[in-house]
Amino acid sequence: MYKSIQREFLKRLVLSTTIFLLILSFIFYSYIKVVVTLDIQKKMIQDAKLVNNIGKLSEDGLKNLTKLTKTSTSIDMQIIKKQQMIYHSSWQEDNRVYHKIEYPFGEIKDGFIVITQDLTQNYNMLNNIFKDLFVFTMGGLILVIIYSVTISRVLTTPVAKFAKNISKTDINNIQKLQKSELPLEFHPIVNSLNNLTNRIKSHIKYQKELFIGITHELKTPLAVMKLKNEITIRKPRDEARYKQAINLNIEQINKLNKIISSMLDMGRQEGAKFEKETTFDIVTFLQDICKSFSLIGKSSQIKVLFKSDISSLFITTQATLYGQIVQNFVQNAIKFSPKGENIVVKLTQQNSKTVVSIIDRGIGIDKDVDIFAPFKRYGEKQGVGLGLFLAKNASSTIGAKISITNNKTKGATATVIL
Questions:
Q1: How many domains does the structure of the chain reveal?
Q2: The whole model's pTM is what?
Q3: CB within 8 A of 17, min separation 6: which ones?
Q4: What does DSSP say about strands 303-308 and 342-350: parallel, antiparallel, or unpaired?
Q5: In this structure, are 321 and 287 located in the same domain?
Q6: d(C-alpha 322, C-alpha 313), whole Å
Q7: Which domain covers residue 266, as residue numbers?
Q8: Which of the given ranges, 58-62, 105-109, 406-410, has the highest pLDDT on average?
Q9: Hey, which end of the chain has fewer CB within 10 Å, N or C?
């Protein structure tokens, strides 16, 4: 179930404020009650001390003293056999509240001065205070609800405006969001979305360029076959000319197959981007790749050797994409290496980074050419020109850094840092 920020804000603010007002009212009421009770007890103890200081009193004297205190107070003298200390007690009778104090009387053994006071009026006053506090709390709660609704609307207005601006954006009109129109709290989100917008623009541009490139690559072999076939059928030819035309068609069809295979590889790579990361031994992983490509390079007398001082090293990444990067580099190394040369796949570790270097003795690279761009070919070898482009995409997905540099003497070194 989706949650509304506005409703959650209202609910929590009202709840917290209500609890705060109730606690504050309870504390205030309890404080008044304690102060009033202590004040009454203090006054009754003063009356008891007054009686004790006068000394022995007749019954008429006690009555006269009662008149001097309060009409709601009665004073009596009682013999009570218990420890000589001050006792307090309260009770209710006939909907009235009474408080009694028993104060030790020094003139008589086991004698206590007993003062009883009717506190009904005081408790009625406290009850009225409690009712007033309750009304105040309810009024405060209503004001809090009104305030919360107003504040929540103020807070959600920029969100609505923000959503409206985003809703205007489509794939053909991707515009950056203006921070000046939004509060400071939204600026980090705007920055993130603008960065995402830039990446989307770059991706769309790249897709368009790739689409144009693929169209061009597919169109060229078809144009060659069409032209050759048209020339061939203009007039009767000998068998050798027909064979030449058919061989050219086969050659161009092979080119088309390579282009389609590269496009399929791109599709597989897009699917591999969602592959879960796995933990595997990179030493065994690279050894298997070297064995496979040694068989491929056997016809050219090229060996793919693995070198490392590390006996075992486990890494966690997307194995399929990582394998595509290394395999593309090894495949290019075999393609551009002369017969009889060895290719070295070297594994090293630099701090927390795993470094794989593919070293060949081939023709090297042109520093002025972006070799990772799509459909870029180098040298006289045939190919579609998507291998290194796919390797670059795979490295971006898994967070690896790749590079190709020329060796000081001969050949090039491709490096994968993860």
A1: 3
A2: 0.50
A3: 140, 141, 144, 148
A4: parallel
A5: yes
A6: 15
A7: 223-272
A8: 406-410
A9: N
